[in-house]
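Quick one:
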Amino acid sequence: KHTRMGREELERKLKNWKMALTIDEAVAYLGKYFKLRLGTEVYALIATQKVDFGSIKEILARHLSGEAAEERRAAAAEAERQKTYASRESAAPQDALIIDDDISKIQYKLARCCNPIKGDDVFGFVTINSGITIHRTDCPNARRMRESYPYRVIEARWRQSALGAFRVTIRIVAADTTGMANHITETISRELKLNIRSINFDAASGGCVSGTVSVEVPGSGVVDTLIHSIMRIKGVQRAYRVN
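Output:
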């Protein structure tokens, strides 16, 4: 009875106060404030008038104002972090990659084993003789490098303003139909306006042809569009990016 009465009274008051709190949130905080384990104990306090609604309103108002202040502090901290990030990026040398915020003008090269392009998640690996190589985080060698040489792994990320062309290789399996290579070339060059660097197809089993096409793209965001467009060509059975 006390539980039902206390809940009804608290719900009515919360509506009148127009507080941005649900009944469950209010009871949870009140239980914590009064050091009570159960919500029924909070309702009993209200029903038996051991705590008045003036005090409850004041407690909940302080709680809400504290949350609002915390949200403002968090928003200010995030804005400051973004400002710091932008200033670091603008101050760094205008390269395609940022290799660790504390290192500038450092030489690096893109790893051949995974062929990273702008937009891929990457990390740097310090080699003994060749400076830093940049690998995709899903590189076949990534796990071995991270486990065996964690002290040689450094942070790397793409500069948002980086421009340029990156080469990506797409493997294609298609029906051995007349003019398949021409259809693929036309789709990539004319429809997508991308440059083809090489294309190579050979006969495969089951009346199919299999091969690769190497294309210059501005970043990984174009790769999905490229693959989707190739898959739409009649006779194409598979198309996927290879390392």
